[in-house]
Amino acid sequence: MADFLVVIRSGPTDYDLQGRIRGTLDVPLAAQGVAEAEAAAAAVAPLAPVVIYASPDASALETARHVARACGQRVRRLDGLANLDQGLWQGMLVDEIRLKQPRLYRQWQDNPWAVSPPEGELLEEACGRVEAALERLCRRQPAGRIVLVVPAPLDRIVRWITSGDPLGDLWSREPAAAGLVEIPLAAQWRRAIPLHKARA
Asked: What total number of domains does the chain contain?
């Protein structure tokens, strides 16, 4: 099993900067996103990762290409790690949802485990598929550092599964410094709570 997982949140897109929910929509990096991708590449290159994986969306692949170029690697696309599908909310401003669907918005903020956006993916379902994909890729690599580039909020889901970091507000972007996290990998994930109990 790999020794470390370096989780990089892909750089922001125009949607992220505008406060829109991106979900599974394919949106390229904004200029600020390119700058963040280059900064991540410079930070990761000295770690000498053995492999670089990316979610299948445009922003993650573009960010990963910057990292791969700095590390002398190629990017491996990982379709199993598509972003959280936020259904009919995708493309909408968070403020728009708060005004048009206040009750559902409050439920999502208070307990995202209990509801999903209309035609969207339940958080528990997303966590289940992400955990399965992570287990496969970490076991595939016998040692060394794996880099994984994923969009927000998938970065938080990955960090919650592998290290127990709190999920927090799935619609907010943390400061840029939190966009790159190195996680030591144990034989089992640190979040040893079964998914169906984690909601309590």
From this structure: 1
Helix (H, G, I), strand (E, B) or coil at 52: strand
Domain that holds residue 59: 4-198
The two three-digit tokens of residue 176, written as one number: 């840029």
Chain centroid to CA 38: how far?
Answer: 18
CATH number at residue 42: 3.40.50.1240
Taking only the tens place, the pLDDT of each residue in 146-164 is 999 999 999 999 999 988 8
**Residue 53 forms beta bridges with which residues?**
76, 148
> Does residue 153 contact residue 170 with C-beta atoms inside 8 Å?
yes
d(Cα 198, Cα 24) in Å, to the nearest integer? 24
The string of pLDDT tens digits covering residues 83-129 is 999 999 999 999 999 999 999 999 988 888 988 999 999 999 999 99
Distance CA 70, CA 53 (A): 14
What's the predicted TM-score (pTM) here? Answer: 0.89
> What are φ and ψ of residue 175, in 5° steps?
-55, 155
- Residue owning tokens 């897109």: 13
